[in-house]
Amino acid sequence: MRLTKYSHACVRVERDGAVLVIDPGAFTEPEALDGADAVLVTHQHFDHLDVQKLADALARRPAITVHTHPDVVPQLGALDGVVHPVRSGERFQAAGFEVQAFGGWHARIHPDIERVVNLGFLVEDADGSVYHPGDSFDVPAGAQVETLFVPISGPWLKLAESVDFVRAVAPRRAYALHDSLLSEAGGRVHDATLAQLAGCDYQRLAPGSTVE
């Protein structure tokens, strides 16, 4: 399984020519969707879902499928016919990968802001597993996670929650997610803290970096 981290919240998963892309949003480089076979969308916020990017990718590759919560489907009217609704707890295949959905709600930003649905996605193959939680700290109960992408910055979280999330999931390794809102100095502080406290190998990858 080959993983490429793009800006902010987007992760590309590849194996034997199959390409699965998670959360290509407004901050995502367009090349993240090159050759994509399937796309997973955790929730409707602009930094995780860019409908025009998906429409452009679909025009180039009509066989793409998109998988997301039923509440997000109305946001994808331009992609009618390729969108598959998914609910928490369901297992399905996307781009040949086994995927399971977890969670259900975006982490609370403020009591005055209405919460939206959010799914975390566990992607598995014979070589391991990777978990992308979207904008939540929902632990994938009962799942063994090799690689975790952990949100580290945003209006809905504090760093202690990121640390506790990594500890609760207990992956072999963790990589930063949801990091575009950090300044350079803030990024260094967050990285040092997580590297010290996470309890596993932790790194923040530069956009476009790939790991196996």
Q: What is the strand and helix layout of this fold?
A:
Elements: E1 2-5, E2 11-15, E3 18-22, E4 38-40, H1 51-60, E5 65-68, E6 83-85, E7 91-94, E8 97-105, E9 117-125, E10 128-132, E11 147-151, H2 159-169, E12 173-177, H3 184-197, E13 201-203, E14 209-211
Parallel strand pairs: 3-4, 4-5, 5-6, 10-11, 11-12, 12-13
Antiparallel strand pairs: 1-2, 1-14, 2-3, 7-8, 8-9, 9-10
Task: Provide key terms for this protein.
alpha/beta; 14 strands; 7-stranded mixed β-sheet
Unreliable stretches (pLDDT < 50, length at least 5) are none
Q: Any idea what the CATH architecture is?
A: 4-Layer Sandwich
Strand content: 25-35%
What is the SS-derived class? alpha/beta
Q: Work out the helix count.
A: 3
- Could you tell me the number of beta strands? 14
Please summarize the sheet with the most strands. Answer: 7 strands, mixed
How is this structure best described in words?
With 212 residues, the protein is α/β, with parallel strands linked by helices. It has a single domain (2-205), classed as Ribonuclease Z/Hydroxyacylglutathione hydrolase-like (Metallo-beta-lactamase, Chain A), CATH 3.60.15.10. Helices cover 17% and strands 32% of the residues. It has 3 helices and 14 strands. The strands form 2 sheets. The protein has a 7-stranded mixed beta sheet, with no helix packed on it. The chain has a 7-stranded mixed beta sheet with strand order 7-8-9-10-11-12-13, with helices on one face. The protein is globular. The termini are close together. The model has no long low-confidence stretch (mean pLDDT 96).
